[in-house]
Amino acid sequence: MSKPAIDIGQHSDAGPRKANEDSFGVLIPEPPLCETKGLAMAVADGMSSCAQPKAASETAVKSFLEDYYATHESWSVETSVSRVLTSVNRWLYGQGAAETGHGLVTTFTGAVLKAGVLHVFHVGDSRVSLLRGGELRPLNRLHRITIGEKTDYLSRALGIDVAVRVEHREVAVEAGDVLVFTTDGVHDVIKDADMVRLTDKHGDDLNGAAKAICDAALAAGADDNVTCQIVRIDDPGAPDAHAWHKRLAALPFPPPLAPGQVLDGLKIVRELHASSRSQVYLARDAETDALVVVKTPSPNYADDAAYIEHFMREEWIGRMIDSPHVAKVIRRETPRAFLYFCMEYIEGPTLRQWMTDHPRPDLSQARDIARQIVAGLRAFHRREIIHQDLKPENIKIDRDGTVKLIDFGSAHVASLEELRLPEEERGPLATAGYVAPEALRGARADKRQDIYALGVIVYEMLTGRLPYGKPLETARRARRARYIPARRINAAVPAWIDRALEKAVAKEPARRYQLMSAFLQDIRRPNPAFAEDRAAPLIERDPEAFWKWLAIVSLLLNLVLFWLAAA
Fold this sequence. Notes:
Layout: E1 5-13, E2 22-27, H1 33-36, E3 39-45, H2 53-67, H3 77-94, H4 97-100, E4 108-114, E5 117-123, E6 127-132, E7 135-138, E8 144-147, E9 151-154, E10 167-172, E11 178-182, H5 184-187, H6 192-202, H7 206-219, E12 226-235, H8 241-248, E13 262-263, E14 266-274, E15 278-285, E16 291-297, H9 305-320, E17 329-330, E18 341-344, H10 351-357, H11 363-381, E19 385-386, E20 395-397, E21 403-405, E22 412-413, H12 414-419, H13 437-440, H14 447-463, H15 475-480, H16 486-489, H17 495-504, H18 516-524, H19 538-541, H20 543-566
Antiparallel strand pairs: 1-12, 2-3, 3-4, 4-5, 5-10, 6-7, 6-11, 8-9, 11-12, 13-14, 14-15, 15-16, 16-18, 17-18, 19-22, 20-21
């Protein structure tokens, strides 16, 4: 991944006004934020009729540039900016709204350049335009209401109401593209062709170009503040396959480890688990003398960039999430000589082993485990992360009965998706039997896929079976499969819980629970909609039995017809 690179030119003038109420700025963060969050830029124009127009515009720009980088690295650009602007809008509105009907009001046009895509966020009548190939193309609409020939009003702005609708769009950009941010004192007065001409005339002198554009607007009769901010994109920060592979290969894979061996101060006690994809060891950390889990990548994938990326992603996610129901990644002071990471040691069985030991658990036990799984999933979902591989093997229960989610190397992260990494695994990453049907069809990851897996797990705890009999390994198999009522396997399951399970594992995401809290509520107390045990047709409940009975009836009918014909 190459870092975005830009050059900047800026100029602002109060013009005929006593004070300059415009604000503008660009923030280029240090790595790795410049890659994971991108570069932020903005312009704002305070409304002169509000109490403090300069404070309004300055607050909007500063809050956007600073607070955006304080949002979670896993959040998408849209989610991060929406949270920031919602907060800014509420603060601005709260300043004097009770007396005047509105607070501090400002237009706002911001953008984030990340991985070759410009994310534009706009409200009001300021503007950002894309200059490419000699043509200046506005990237946002002006939110105005015109009354008569000369009178117009802002229809949207920050601080004008308790809620705000922010215009958002995404534009692919290239090296050499130029962004021109202007307030209405500029673009309402001079033509786009003049801005193109003046920008070209000054070449690499972007400050000179921005000043020339503002001067031209004032010479043309602008009666407002004039601001122009020019950003030339030298490198859009698009994925770089060579650089990405080089980063992934920075640390070598560790060799197979045996009890007694020491790896960077970690003394191996024993192997806990081994598969074709990774090895997991119990080790004692010389730094703390505590037992820890060491996870190492499998040498089988030493040249697989997609695998390495997912392995590194698991540690990155674990460091961001702090929940008693998610296994913690341990930060160590000792530098690493190999590719691996450490996690807390959870003494206790996996949910798979617990299910083997408790083939018919009490409903209260199943509910408690489901509640704790949901608590762990919420820690992921709040950061726009989808676990994607929720299954009994990836859930541990410690000696105190606390449920913890482990193994999140397959997780989908919204902010990483925006990076458009050159190496990415194709197809669903979840385990057959727990993967949602829409994932088999190539649908994008969303929370409902984790809800599907949660429903399968609760069903399996209560029945020892999967809700569709066999794992749904293909989209074709998923289309043909029919839900098997849990009550037919375990008569102790109430009808209303069975209906809740059926909804949780619905094959169509729109018919599934949209919220995990709704599912938890429906397995704790009867949902009135489920109170009546409406039996499904036999062909849906038990296709095999249906066809057997149909064959018997058909045979009997043929015998009767044969007897009548013989008589």
